[in-house]
């Protein structure tokens, strides 16, 4: 795996974590539409 591939994976991981946090916050605030959107974004996955 090249450095650029590792950097992309790390960036993707960070974005996924941020999106997950956004989803949890929205859920806890009762904003279920926003939580559904955050959790339902398929490109942000942990691998």
In total, the number of domains comes to 1
Poorly predicted parts: none
- Number of DSSP strands? 0
Helix-strand pattern: HH
Q: Taking Cα atoms only, what radius of gyration do you get, to the nearest Å?
A: 13 Å
User: Percent range for helical residues?
Assistant: over 70%
Q: Structural class, judged by helices and strands?
A: mainly alpha
Overall pLDDT level: 85
Report the span from N to C terminus.
15 Å
Reported for the largest beta sheet, the result is: none
Strand-residue proportion: under 5%
How would the global form be characterised?
A: rod-shaped
For the structure shown, list the relevant keywords:
47 residues, mainly alpha, 2 helices, 0% strand, rod-shaped
What does this structure look like?
With 47 residues, the protein is mainly alpha-helical. It has one domain. Helix content is 72%, strand content 0%. The chain contains two helices and no strands. It has helices at 3-28, 32-39. Helix 1 (3-28) packs antiparallel against helix 2 (32-39). It starts with a helix and ends in an 8-residue tail after the last helix.
Layout of helices and strands:
Layout: H1 3-28, H2 32-39
Helix pairs in contact: 1-2
């Amino acid at each position: 795996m090249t450095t650029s591939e590792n950097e992309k994976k790390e960036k993707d991981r960070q974005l996924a974590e941020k999106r997950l946090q956004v989803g949890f916050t929205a859920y806890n605030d009762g904003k279920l539409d926003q939580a559904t959107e955050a959790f339902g974004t398929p490109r942000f996955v942990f691998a």
